[in-house]
Amino acid sequence: MMAWLEANPVWAAIIRVLLWVLPVLLMVPFMIWYERRLLSWMQDRIGPNRTGNITFSRTSRIIPFFLKGKKFHLQGIAQPIADGIKLFIKEDITPGSVDRFIYLAAPALALFPSFALGATIPWGPFKGLTPVADVNIGVLWILAVSSLGVYGVVLSGYASNNKYSLLGGLRSSAQLISYELGMSMALAAVCMATGSLKPTDIVESQTGPLWGVIPGLANWNLFTPYGFVAGVIFFICMVAETNRAPFDLPEAENELVAGYHTEYSSMRFAVFFMGEYAAMFVYSLIFSTVFLGGYHALPINWQTLGEIAPGVSWVTNALGHVDYWFAPVWLVGKAFFLVTVYVWLRATLPRLRYDQLMALGWKSLLPLATINTIVVALWMVVSRVASPLAGVVSGLLGFGILYLLYRALNGVGIDRTKFLTSREIDMVEVTRSVA
Amino acid sequence: MIPVTPELMILGAVASLAAAAAVGVVAFNNAVRSALCLVLNFFVLAFVYFTLNAEMLGIMQIIVYTGAIMVLFLFVIMLLNLGAPQLLRDKDDPKVFAGISLGVALFALLGSQLLPSFLKVTTPNAPKDFGAPANLGRALFTNYVIPFEAVSVLLLVGVVGSILLAKRKI
Fold it and tell me: Which residues of B touch A (CB under 8 A)?
C-alpha cells in the first residue's frame, strides 16, 4: 500500500485530497442537524425530529414479515437532506443591478478557504495518506488561507449592490482582520514551544511527558500554562473567524436583514451556509490538532506507561493499538466536542456590539497573546538552562508578574464605585437654591 | 529546444496565469475588477515561489499581500465607489501609446538581460530546504541581524507615524 503510494505520487495526491474533502463535505449535513437539535434542546423546544422516520406497511406483500408494521424513529436525521433538496429546486434569483461576475464568483470564494484550510492537518498517524501536504509551513498555511476567507464575504456584500449587504461585508472584513492577529499570535506561542511549524510535529511533540516532568502523561498544549492561554485566545478568534454567534455581526438579523448574503437565494445561499459549517468543523479539527493532542484519544502516552510499569505492558500495548488504529475517530470526536461548544456559545451569549467586538480583539486578545509569547520565550530559556519544572514555574510566575503590571497600568483593581458616588446629585441642595 | 520537465510545465501554467492577471489589472476599466486581478496575481505568484522551493516567501506573499494589503485596497475602492467606468476611459490619449511603448521597451531591456541565462534552466536550482522557515530564521538572526533590526525600527516608525496622523490629540 505505502510502496504503491510512493510509486504513484499523482494518484497518492488525489487520494489524499479526496480523503480530506469528502469526509468534511459529508460532515456538513450532519453538523447542521446536530446543531439544530442541540440548540432546540438547549432552548427547551423540540427541533426537527420527524423527517426520515420510516414506518413499514402492515399489509403490503413486498415488505418482509419481520419489518411489517415496524416504526423507525430516526430523530429527524434526514432533515438536512430535505433542506438541501429544497434549496436546490428553489428559484435562483439574481437581482437586476448586481455586479454579475463578482456576484456569481463570491460564493465559490467563500467556500474555497473552508476546505483548503485543513490541507496541512493530519487526521491520523498514517504517513502517505494524511495530511494532504506535510509542508514545513503548515501553520502559516492555515493563517494564510484563513485570511483569504474575507474575500467571499466582502465581495458578496459589494456585488449585491445592497446597503445591508455592503455593511455586512465591511463589518466582516474588519472583524476577520482584527481577529487574525490574535489568532496568529496564539499559534506563534505554540509554534515557539514546539520548535516547528509542521502540524505533524506539533502532534508529535504533544506525546512527550507533561511539562517535560511527568512521564506517561502526554504534554497536550492545552494543559500547559502558556498553551491554555493560547488555546482560549485561539478559540475566541476561531469563533470570530467563522462568523458564528456571539460574533455574527456580519449577518446580524435585527440590523442587517441577513448581512452579506441578503441577496442570495437557492443554491448560492446554500454554498455560503455550507462554507460556514465546513469552516466550523475544520477550525475545530485545527484546534484539536494544535491544542488537544491531535489524533490521540487520551493525554496518556501508552508506550512510556508500559515502560514504567512492565507488568501491565500488554494492557498498555493493546490500548496503544486502539489509540493508533482508531485515530480519525478520536480526532473527529474532539472536533465534535468543540462544535458542541460552538452551539453552546450560540445558545448562551448575546451578540456583541461592534465597539465591544473591536475592543475585545485589539485591547484584550492581542495584548494577552503578546504577553503569552513573552512567557513562552521565558519558559523556553529557563527550561533549557535550568530544569523543565523550573520552566513551568517561571512561566506561571511570568504570567503573575505581567498580570500585576497590567492591573497597575490599567487600574483593574481600582474600586469603580467611588466614581459613581461622586456623581450623586443632591436634590435638596438644588431645590433650596431655586427657592 | 528546451526539454519539457514537469516542473517547467507547472511553472508555465502558474506563471502564465499570473501574467494574464497582471494584464487584467491594467486592462479592466472597473476598479474593483482590477483590484481582484491584482489579488489573483499575488495569490498565483505565491505558487510560483512554491515551485522554486521558497515556501516561506510564498506563504508570506499570501498572508501579507493577498490576505491583508489587498483587503484594505478593496475596502477603500468599494467605499470610494468610483461609479461609471465610461467616464474613466480616455479616447485617443497619447499617454496610452507612450505608456505601451515604454512598457515594451522596459520588457525588452529586462528580457535581453535576463532571458539568456534563464533559457537553459529547466528545474529549480535551489536545494530542497532553501526557503524553509528554520533556515530563513537562522539567516535573519545571524548574518542579516542588523538589516533585520533596521527594518523593524522602520516599521515601528511607520506605526508611530500612522498613530500620530490618525490621532491629533494624544
Answer: 32-33, 36, 39, 43, 55-56, 59-60, 62-63, 66-68, 71, 74-75, 78-79, 129, 132-134
Question: Which one has a higher pLDDT value, B118 or A416?
Answer: B118
Closest to A187 in 3D by CA, of A176, A177, A205, A202: A202
Q: How many residues does chain B have?
A: 170
Domain ranges of chain B: 6-131, 133-170
A181 at B interface, C-beta within 8 A: no
Nearest CA of chain B to the CA of A432: how many Å?
A: 41
- What digits encode the pLDDT tens for the residues A360-403? 888 888 888 888 888 888 888 888 787 777 777 777 888 788 77
Largest CA distance in chain A: 100
Residue A433: partners with Cβ closer than 8 Å, 6 or more residues away: none
Give the model confidence (pLDDT) of B126-164 as tens digits: 777 777 888 888 888 888 999 999 999 999 999 999 888
Whole-angstrom Cα distance, residue B102 to residue B92?
17
Considering only CB atoms, which chain B residues are within 8 Å of A173?
Answer: 71, 74-75
Beta A214-218 vs A209-210: how paired, if at all? antiparallel
Q: How far is CA A211 from the centre of its chain?
A: 25
Q: Do A137 and B56 touch (CB under 8 A)?
A: yes
CB–CB contact B59 A140 (8 Å) = yes
User: CA dist A193 to A202, A391, B159, Å?
Assistant: 9, 12, 28
Judge whether A166 is closer than 8 Å to chain B, CB to CB. Answer: yes
pLDDT, mean over chain A: 82
pLDDT tens across A257-270, in order?
777 777 888 888 88
Chain A partners of B68 at a C-beta cutoff of 8 Å?
A: 147, 177
Closest chain B residue by Cα to residue A146: B67
More confident of the two residues B145 and A313: B145
- Are the CB atoms for A78 and A50 separated by under 8 Å? no
- A412 by Cβ neighbours in 10 Å (0-12 / 13-18 / 19+) ranks as exposed
Type of residue numbered A138: G
ipTM tops the 0.85 cut: no
CATH code of the region B6-131: 1.20.120.1200
3-state secondary structure of A435: coil
pTM of the predicted structure, to 2 decimals:
0.84
Distance (Å, whole) CA B125 – CA B7? 11
Task: Give alpha helix (H) positions in A195-222.
Answer: 199-205
Interface test with B, best of A147, A180, A370 (most B CBs within 10 A): A147
List, for residues B42-91, the tens digit of each pLDDT value. 989 988 888 887 888 888 888 888 888 888 888 788 777 665 555 556 66
